[in-house]
Specification:
By secondary structure, the chain is an all-alpha fold. It is built from four helices and no strands.
Length: 122
């Protein structure tokens, strides 16, 4: 019984995703077809179709899993310990110093190799 219910739910999800694809395609094609119309009207139509497509997508099993993941990510962001301004500035300066140092080293190696190759080729 459980596998039968899952199969029907899976078929329903496939149908819902097909509807989502059709709605997105309709938005893209309609926006192109009605390009002579006002941008405001086209924007309202695209946003309406995107809203309906998003609602349908969120009603699927994967859509609900995505929504749950987004909620958990929002909760996790609240737990993050963000660096202070001083830590951020210090880290940025260290990265900048390393980048400048490595660019000088690479420039020196490139110049040396260029000089060696030109001396060999003559």
């Amino acid at each position: 019984m459980s596998s039968n219910t899952e199969a029907q739910q899976s078929r329903g999800d496939v149908f819902k995703w097909a509807v989502v694809v059709v709605l997105v395609a309709a938005a893209v094609i309609g926006n192109n077809y009605f390009s002579a119309e006002s941008l405001l009207y086209r924007l309202i139509a695209v946003l309406a179709l995107a809203g309906v497509a998003g609602y349908i997508a969120l009603s699927t099993e994967r859509g609900q899993a995505f929504f749950k993941l987004a909620k958990e990510a929002k909760t996790e962001i609240r737990r993050v310990v963000w660096p202070t301004r001083q830590e951020t500035v210090q880290t940025t300066l260290i990265v900048l110093a390393v980048v400048i140092f490595m660019s000088l080293v690479l420039w020196a190696v490139d110049s040396l190799l260029g000089w060696v190759v030109s001396a060999v080729i003559g």
